[in-house]
Write a structure and sequence with these properties.
This protein has two domains: 35 residues, no CATH class; 55 residues, no CATH class. The longest helix has 26 residues. It is 46% helix and 10% strand. By secondary structure, it is mainly α. The protein is built from three helices and three strands, in the order βββααα.
Length: 112
């Protein structure tokens, strides 16, 4: 799938499951013309991935806040959720140890 029907300019005007007199050209679902017709641009998946990653971080921070304020306990969450949170925390801590810390205290004291 799909067979496509194009207008005089070559733009897809409809998709069909089966071949017909108007739709004789077969294109793969991933063909750029088919993706453009259904509204998928190459930029959308990147944006959704970035937004999803940002949203996951927000949810993680909300869970941390609820735990710190003793509104929920980590043990209130399902085992799989606990494991995923611990895995993300461990990964973030490991990565942050290797990152540059500009706003943390140093051994130099207060230098003006």
């Amino acid at each position: 799938m799909p067979y496509v029907r194009r207008n005089a300019e070559g733009t897809i005007t409809s998709l069909h499951r089966e071949r017909s007199l108007e739709a004789v050209e077969y294109l793969d679902d991933r063909h750029p013309d088919v993706q453009a017709f259904v509204g998928n641009t190459s930029k959308q998946p990147e944006e959704f991935s970035r937004l999803d990653a940002d949203f996951v971080r927000v949810i993680e921070d909300v869970i941390d806040t609820l735990i710190v304020k003793n509104i929920i306990n980590i043990t209130d969450l399902p085992g799989e959720a606990q494991a995923k949170l611990f895995a993300r925390k461990t990964f973030r801590e490991r990565v942050s140890k290797n990152s540059l810390r500009l706003f943390e205290p140093t051994d130099f004291g207060d230098v003006i």
